[in-house]
Every structure is written in C-alpha cells, then in structure tokens.
Description:
Layout: H1 19-24, H2 30-68, H3 71-108, H4 124-150
Helix pairs in contact: 3-4
Amino acid sequence: MQDNSNLTQTVDTAATVTTEESTAGATFTQADMDNLAGKIRGEEKRKAEQAVRDAVAQAIAEERRQAQLTAEERESEAKAKRDAELKAREDAITLRERRLMAQELLSKKNIPIDLVDFVVDLDEAKTEANVERMAKTYNKSVENGVTDKLKGTPPTDFSTTTTTADKPKKVTSAF
Length: 175
C-alpha cells in the first residue's frame, strides 16, 4: 500500500476564487491586494514626480524673471523679502509673548489656560479685552451651570414628624 500521509496537494489560492467570495465582495486574494497596492504606489509616484516637475518649472521661471530684472529691482525685491521674513518672525515672537500674558491673566481669574488660544491677539490691549470678555462669559456660564445643578425640590426632613395634636388650631374670630 502506498503511504498517503506524505502526499499533499498544492492549490494556487491566489487564482481560485469561489462564487461565494466573488458575490460577497468582502474577500480579496493576495494577487488582488498586490495589484491594488501597485496601483496606489504608481499613483503616488506619479503625483510626486509631477510635484517635482512643477517645482522645477517654477524655479526656472523665477530664475528667468530674476535675470530680466535690473540690479536695483533685484535688491529691492530681496529687501522686501527680508522685511516680510522679519515681520513674520516679529509677529511670531509677539504672539508668544501675548500668549504667556494671556495665560497669566486667565490663571489669575481662575479660568482654564486651555482657552488661551481664544483670546490671544497681536495687540496687547485687544488681548486684555478678550481675556476680560472671556472671564465674564466663563463666570456667567459656570454660575448658570451651578444654578441649574442646584435646582430641584428641597429635601424633606423626616427626622421631625408632626402629629395632629402638634398642629395649631384654627382660631375663628367672633367679630
């Protein structure tokens, strides 16, 4: 007799799709997944290559434009660019300072400092006004929330019970 325990049958599962799997649409074979991954990688590669081509074309166009400018025009553009960068840095530093100031003001008023982004502005006076407005609104909201939580019927005191003998009698007037 032949030993069947060492005989195995190989089946290409990537190529076999049952009718149940094809109708359900929820099961994919490894080949399907490989094709899908390949398509996605190809699309991303094309997008990246297009972005590089666009950046190169833009740089070439800018270089050609710069070449046509006079030295004075190039210098004025460079100065304007430096001024814009300095202004952006200055604004960033100012915002950091205002943010710290607003955090201090909020903590003094017992308001969570997580709300600091809602009150910060480049102008110091406007930041302070925003903090004041936030404090009023926040405190009013907290007060309303506490009032709503405390609403309800007062608890009854069951420790003292009154009997009919303890109740006051009605007095009728003779007049």
